[in-house]
Amino acid sequence: MPVLDVKDLSVTFGGLKAVNQFSLDMPKGGLIGLIGPNGAGKTTVFNLLTGVYKPNSGTMELEAENGQTVSLIGSEPWKIARLGMTRTFQNIRLFKRMTVLDNVKVSIHPGVKYNPFQAMLRLPVYRREEERIDQQAMELLELLGLQDKAEEMAASLPYGEQRKLEIARALGARPKILLLDEPAAGMNPQETKELTSLIRTIRDKLDITILLIEHDMSLVMSICERLLVLDYGTLIADGSPEEIRTNPQVIKAYLGEEVGGSC
Amino acid sequence: MNKQTKSKLLHAFWVQTIFIVVVYSVLSVLIGTGIFSKYTASILTTSSIYVIVALGLNLMTGMTGQLVLGHAGFMSIGAYGTAILLKAGLPMLLSMLLSASLAGLVGLLIGIPTLRLRGDYLAIVTLGFGEIIRVVIMNLEKLTGGAAGLMNIPGLSIKTASTEINTLLTFLWVSIFMILSILAVVHLLISSHGRAILSVRDDEIASEAMGINIFYTKLYVFVFSTFLAGIAGGLFATHYRYLNPDMFNYLKSVDFLIIVVFGGMGSITGTVAASFVLTILQEQLRFMKDYRLVIYPILLIMMMIFRPQGMLGTKELRLTRVFSRKWWRKNLARLKKGGRGNASA
Question: Which residue of A89, A109, A120 is in closest CB contact with B195?
Answer without folding.
Answer: A109
